[in-house]
From TrEMBL:
Major location category of this protein: membrane
Entry similarity comment: Belongs to the TonB-dependent receptor family.
Descriptive protein name: TonB-dependent receptor plug domain-containing protein
Tagged with keyword Coiled coil: no
Bilayer disposition of the protein: Multi-pass membrane protein
Signal peptide: 1-33
Protein's cellular compartments: Cell outer membrane
SUPFAM superfamilies reported in the protein's UniProt record: Porins
Length: 315
């Protein structure tokens, strides 16, 4: 037999019809092939109808089994509420915000042993730390965000904190950086964006944490974090009390007469935790006795008061 000769039509039709019936229910018995006898068409159509009936019964039985196994109880979904004074409380969802947002959580701060806001912000691109170049300008956190001064765009729990001081992280849970204009969220501000420091809040758990650091030259630092919540406080199931303490005393390596010394205390109390109505009262106090480092003064050759120090560091 030549390879170009065709085989009996009924055999080819049965193979094609079987394949079509096995692959989909939409075709049913509507498959037709050319050059097939009427008797063959009738037989294959009967096979298709039988296969469709078996498949329909199987689908119906499967649906009935699924409905029988489905539980009759309602499905309850539980989740933690967003913490207040964070970006999530002021924006519907941070992921949907049309801005570049960076959030540095507490885990990163602890792993890097970051003790100041400047140390934390080194994880964020687009921020420069200034230090009053030339010996002028105020001390403290002097930041530039996207080329614009952000000294007055630092917030603590959503409240503007424009004071000039070195901000410590002993009472900080996370740091949020929003880049770009954000007047819709914070009101008046610069074009670069703003920085929000989210403070630690009381929890219903009871725990005690602390850190101790010793180093050279003359580095001593200690922090304590105490939290009592729930029934342990004896006030109510939704009440909690938290206290954070800090002491820091350190010299600057390679620099004389430059030091940082500060201490802080931050108590807070919360009522109604775990309910839809919550109230949190917090207080923070930081005192510092620091000697800022403005660099090494240089005497130009035009200075007439110190001619012996021309083109040299000042005495």
């Amino acid at each position: 037999m030549s390879r170009y000769s065709s085989s009996p039509g009924i055999r080819s039709y049965r193979k094609a019809a079987s394949a079509l019936v096995g692959s989909t229910l939409l075709l049913g018995s509507g498959a037709h092939a050319s050059e097939v006898a009427q008797a063959g068409q009738t037989g294959v159509s009967a096979e298709s109808d039988a296969a469709n009936a078996v498949l329909a019964n199987t689908v119906g039985a499967s649906a009935a089994a699924d409905s029988a196994e489905a539980p009759s109880d309602a499905i309850v979904v539980t989740a933690d509420k967003y913490r207040i004074n964070t970006l999530n409380s002021r924006l519907p969802d941070v992921r949907d915000a049309p801005q570049s947002i960076s959030i540095i959580p507490r885990e990163i701060i602890e792993q890097q042993a970051a003790t100041t806001l400047n140390d934390v912000l080194r994880n964020v691109s687009g921020i420069s730390m200034a230090a009053g170049e030339g010996g002028g300008g105020p001390a403290g956190d002097n930041l530039t965000l996207r080329g614009f001064g952000a000294r007055n765009d630092i917030f603590v729990d959503g409240i503007r904190d424009f004071a000039s001081y070195t901000r410590d992280t002993f009472n900080v849970e996370q740091v949020e950086v929003v880049k770009g204009p954000a007047s819709a969220q914070t009101g008046r501000g610069s074009t670069g964006g703003y920085i929000n420091m989210f403070s630690k809040q009381p929890k219903l758990d009871t725990f005690v944490n602390g850190t101790v650091g010793l180093g050279l030259p003359g580095y001593v630092r200690g922090t304590a974090d105490l939290n009592v919540g729930g029934e342990s406080l004896g006030v109510g199931s939704g009440a909690a009390l938290r206290l954070n303490l800090m002491y820091h005393d350190a010299d600057v390596p390679g620099r004389d007469h430059v030091k940082t010394k500060r201490w802080g205390i931050a108590p807070s109390i919360a009522l109604g935790l775990g309910t839809s109505t919550r109230a949190i009262l917090s207080y923070v106090r930081i005192e510092g006795d620091n000697q800022p480092d403005y660099g090494i003064p240089f005497v130009p050759n035009t200075n007439v008061a110190l001619p012996e120090y021309h083109d040299k560091p000042a005495p």
